[in-house]
Amino acid sequence: MRTLLQNIRNFSLTFTLKDQVDSLSHERDVYTEELIAIKKETDLLKTRNEGLKKLEEQVLQSAQSTTEKALKEEIKRLMEVVSSQAETIEKQPFLGHTVAKIAKPTQAKSRTPLGFIKSYFAFKKELKAYEKKILHDAKEKFHLVVEKRDETIHIDRATESSYKSEYIVEHSNYLDVNGKVKRLYYLADIPAYLSPYVFFRLLTSSLPFTLSIFIEPASSTELLKKARQRLSVLEMQQNERLRSGKIRDQQIDKNIDEVMSFIDELVHEAEKGIVYSLYLQLEADTPKELEALHKELQNIAGSMDLTFNQYTFGQKQAFKNFLPFAQDHVQENRILQSTAVSYLMPFVSKHLNDPDGIFMGLNAYNDSLIFMDPFTSRNNNINIFGVSGSGKSVTSKVLMNRLYMRGVQILAIDPEGEYVNLAKSLGGEVIQFSRENGINPFHINSTRENDILDHISTLKTFFKFFIPQDHYDGAVLDEHLITLYDSSTPNFENLLELLGTHPMAKDLSVLSTGSLRGIFNSKRKLELDNNFIVFDLHDLKKDEKREPAMYLLTSLIWNLINIQNGKKRMLFIDEAHKLLVDPEVAVFYRELVKQARKRNTGVVSITQDVEDFLHNDYGKAIITNSETKILLKQSYAALSEIGTIYPMTDEEKQQLGHLGIGEVILFREAEHLRLNTIVLPFEKPLVFTSD
Length: 691
Fold this sequence. Notes:
Blueprint: H1 2-84, H2 86-90, H3 113-139, E1 144-146, E2 153-155, E3 158-163, E4 168-170, E5 175-177, E6 180-189, H4 200-203, E7 209-217, H5 220-243, H6 250-267, E8 273-284, H7 287-303, E9 307-310, H8 315-319, E10 334-337, H9 338-343, E11 358-363, E12 369-372, E13 382-385, H10 392-405, E14 409-414, H11 420-425, E15 429-432, H12 449-463, H13 474-486, H14 492-499, H15 503-512, E16 532-536, H16 543-563, E17 569-574, H17 583-595, E18 601-607, H18 610-614, H19 617-624, E19 628-631, H20 636-645, H21 650-656, E20 663-668, E21 671-677, H22 684-687
Parallel strand pairs: 13-18, 13-19, 14-16, 14-17, 15-16, 17-18
Antiparallel strand pairs: 1-2, 2-3, 4-5, 5-6, 6-8, 6-9, 7-8, 8-10, 11-12, 11-21, 19-20, 20-21
């Protein structure tokens, strides 16, 4: 029984093991099939991968062939950007804000576990502090101030931080500042003798420059010490020449005298010692344009005996002298006497501002307003000289209008009828001269004997225009004119009757019954009742009529001014050179100009033929007796002669030949002003009207 049970147990175990073997065999078959399937898939994937690689290579080759040129161009552009920003990348201060200069911490390496742990915790601590500082500084505002002992501009809240503009690129001899190129210079040498206008040509040039000047007082003791040292050297040089048997050097003697004079001025405080430095900055759009400006600057400076040196590899340092911080970072200075420093100041343009004056225009050098009152100078007379088309008439009309608005009576002798419309527009009176509208030359608004005798002298000169020299007899004419005024019947008919058969009677008959009748034998009497009167001579076509008419009118006006001298008057005489054709008329003209101030009157002489004044002694006297002179553009032939009358520099003479329409040089007493005449909008209809 036991054996049977044992056999049954063995049979069950055998059966179980067989079942397990069969199961494992089945699983093995399944796994084998799966491995076969996986191997097939792997082979398939491998095949596909190889196909994809081939396809990728083909695509890359195709893309490379189509984009190779574009990639090369992009690489070239990026290299240019890197090259242009090389200085900015190398010089970290240009990055500006403190955030860009904070270094990110790194973990220190260690070979031991303990060292590694320590460096790790230290790194974590530094990293936390770094992130905190980044957040703090990124939100903080900053302000720029100058650090006196440093080359940079520091932030006032953190002295270790600095700021520099990212738009400044320094080259060897110029700066590129935000698209503009700048070159910096310093005044290295000056001539031995300076004039008040040493900078005049530079300041009036078209160069786009900026000046920066630093001035501070120097110790007189130090200056005296240096001057005496210089004197000792010069005396030693002269003595050495004498000991060697040579004659005295005149130049050394001259230098000794100058130094001794300078020492004497310092001792008596007639001069002061000044530490002076001047810097100049040229600005252009391109380096090529800057080179052209550089050559022009050197030419101008050479003509003035000034030496401007440029900085090489120091442009940025010099540029800080032009920042608004009043600090000289270059210290290219010298000790000069105060007179020399005053000449080296860029303020050569004058100002003219009479409180009660009329507006003349804008100063061409500093755009200041020019106000002039001709009645406040030594005399009230004005000269307006300029070539045809330079703007004489416009300038004269502007003066007339503005003086008239200030209550000055305007009297104008107008040979060409240019001021007729202005007078009519302002409610003035126009007295036209023609055969139908003449004047009575015998009329005089006075019964005083002296006035009558003066008027007789005027008539004698007036009649000379119509009487040939071989017929003229002043004594006879004087006798008959006195008889006429004694009989109180002065006119042409009575005068011709008194002359009888004298040749002068036939000559003067042209005024009474001849071709000029009606012009000078009218019964009209001259009055000065209106505040704006124009005597229009335009209808007198021939010069032989205009010249005597101008003289006669001037004389009659002058007689009336002598009687009625209670108001301010300005007498404008256009084509004034015609009053210089006859010596007696020229004498009268000169006396009129000389005596005008006593009558509270000014005479404005207007002409384009300035040579007639310069070649005539009476004309020169008229110029010198006119305190205010307005010079418009002049002919080149007259420039040298004008310099003999007007105290002008060579630069002013050159400018006179290049002035534009409306540009004038105004001489008044010791002032020389170049200005642009401004016609106000409401004046344009008055000034620019045509006949």
